[in-house]
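Notebook B, p. 112. Complex prediction, attempt 2.
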Amino acid sequence: MATPVYTKGVTTPELIRGLEYLTRPRFEGAVPSGSPLERTLDWLVNWSRAYSFWPLFFGLSCCFIEEITAWTPRFDISRFGAEVLRGSPRQADLLIVSGTVFKKIAPVVLRLYEQMPEPKWVISMGSCANCGGMYDCYSVVQGIDQILPVDLYIPGCPPRPEAVMQSIVLLQEKVRSERPTRKILHLAGGSQGTQTPILVDGLSKTRDSRGPGYYGTPPRGSEETPPMFWDARSDLMWTPPPHWIELSETDQSLAKILSEKFGGAVIQAAQTSDLLTFEVAPDRLKDVLRFLKTESEPKFLRLDDLTAVDESARREREKYPDYTLVYQLLSFDSASRVRLKVPLAGPEPVIPSITDLWPAADWYEREVYDMFGVLFAGHPRLWRLLMPHDWEGHPLRKSYPDRATDMPPYTHYDAQKHQPRDAGEYMTGRLAEDQYVLNIGPHHISTHGLIRFILALKGEEITALDTDIGYHHRAAEKIGERQSWHQYIPYTDRVDYLTGVANNLTYLLAVEQLAGIKVPDRAQFIRVLLTEFFRLSNHLVWFSTYTHDTGAMTPNFYCFAEREKIMDIVELITGGRLHPSWFRLGGVAMDLPPGWKELVDDFIKVFPGRIKEFEALITKNPIFEARTRDVGYLSKQDAMEWGVTGANLRASGLEWDLRKKMPYSGYEAFDFDIPYATAGDCYARYLVRVEEMRQSVRIIEQAANQMPPGRWLSDDYRYIIPPKEETLTDIETLIHHFINVTRGAKMPRGEAYMATEHPRGEQGVYAVSDGLHMAYRLRFRSPGFANVQTLPLMAVGHLISDLIAILGSIDFILPDIDR
Amino acid sequence: MQPVNPVTLSPWAPGLFSLALYTAIVVGLLALLLILTRWLGEQKPDLEKARPYECGVIPTGGAQFRYPVPFYLVAVFFLIFDVETALIFSWAVAIEDLSWLGWLQISFFIIILLVGLVYLWLKGGLDWRPQSIRKALPPRS
């Protein structure tokens, strides 16, 4: 039956038949009802609504990148009438919950939903929003449908942009089956908006990942549960000792000086896998740190990282204290690091704060307090950092449950009750009479994710600034303590969802350093090739969002079009887009596929011209210059001391790039420059990143042209997963494959820290092994954490609009800051 | 004072009739739109919907407080220049009737305005940047 064509001679019955056709129920089982007039009005209203959705500009995590990609040239969602994203819930009628719903953000999501006018629809995008997905952890709500009614679910992790378009089409179908007229005219009956109720765990939904019918099997397939892993069979296995390194002469002389100066208070670790390590008595800690920062040769100017380890679940419990604090310093002069380990005893140990020595210790100490319950005497404001302020317990303690499914379900009531801390509390004592407080975030277009800035304002001038992070805390570190060494690789991709395999690399380098796994040359080159592609992809997103924030819309479309070409190459090689999880211990997952070289060559030919085009749009644009020059100044000294890394550090005048200064993964074989600038403002940060794109293309070109032949995976089968084909030829390989895939490889007892020049700065992984098939403690040193902590230095005294430019210039991302 | 001629104010006078009709249509249409938008559609008022939107969190403090002077200054500048633009427009409409004398007068007026603008500019009245930044710009390479 074709749609009738209305002509002059149409008769009334024909007209009615035509209307009946147009207003027929679209969903199976729906029965047509109501008068022809009512159904005609229904049709008219539904038609207008279905083809003009107004989605809220709202994203939670990785999924949002794929969601927004659907708005860019290759996908172009405007064809479906859902083109314009609204910044405020007041103007929106469609909420696409894209990404992980954290317990800290859930009250905000609920409020945004409730502030949308009627009628409204909800699409839940991605496994995390649907059910928690791979994040069955203490900080994540196991499904948005527990707090909001949901119309449609898009499966995937993350779903592709095409899936977003399909969901819009499906929602249009759903809307066309509604009966809004009666609701609009205040008559009984009718339907519009979401009709499904909020789901309740145990009644209308289940959080049990086993699914129905599997209640006889142990939860999650294994009786071995953290923190103790009783009867773990990896206890019975043997491994060689960890990979020990020879200390450099500088390190040896420093060790000598320290032992002369502090005697028994500083004990050097006999052997180390990565860097010079000392055990320091708690009462001398500050003296040692002060000496290392101000007097020693070389001087350790940067507090690289500060974290803790809960030692209470150690296999050899008697050899360890209750907690160990780990201070890690970096020296720019000698390009070396030093690690100080401080043993602590008691359930809630106290240690002096070092915020007077390094202001950057502020957040690090708050995080350790939040996660471990270690107290820092003299800290100006020892509040929780990542978890909500009314949270109970310290999640990284071994006694704390790691899974959300081991805790009561998070409900609609919880989302109403646990509100974020009032902004006024942050500004207590910092407000003059004519000033006021404003929140920017956690939901704001220019925060590029879930982060909340609390501003004290005098007019438009920022007089004080505070930051509330943790809205994107995905428990990456805690999950590392339960996933086997191999199983954890997919989680690393998601630590920074714009840089994919670059995160794999940092994690794998640390584990390979610990176990002494040698990576073949071909694998090194493939790793470099892909990492640089992801650097480009990340910088393209940065370019488009930063310029968008400062008033230019066009680069968005150009950059995302180019980024799709990179995604094509990534997809050809790895099969994935955002999260390929494609590197493996000892190498990569497979060899490069046929046809990769042609695609890469095409890209190298075209892309430098594109960078020129981008620059022609922006670099000398007077509006852009006015927005960024002399805005957000950060001095070189501050940048070094606060642990600022990456392009932000280089824009402040220091020529420092780990790929050159502490080469890893074969970067010493490549010829490239370190771009840097001296102005230290937003414009300098722009220039440095654009130049970095050019250097990345150079590296990619060299890696592609000089790609060595040979194996793409180590043959150290004790630790790595052998290729499947080889398991079919001999029994030894088969056994290794079986053990390493099922239970997971056992790593020698020890620890290792490795850092890489990640697209966003220096990302480090500190892997502690207790000789089991998973990490005992896994720590991410995140670049964004340190970079964003310096924001008050850059933004106070500027205007709100400058803050937006500064945020864009730092290039941070929330899963990286909050982990 | 002249007595008012009842004929000129009659609603049936051709000039006034169209004005009255126009007014009635405008008022009627506005009333209809307001009533329809108020009445039509499903309404589910609740506390959260009534709350001001501030990035998803509960706002701190009220919206009524003492605004700083820069906002006031900008408002005043705008008002002055805006009213003066209205004067210039009305002169432009009647430019032929006012002849060269009118041109001279309005030129004098515009010059006075320009002097005012230059004065504002020099005094920093149009500089929206905060005091702290204006005083100490960071070194530029």
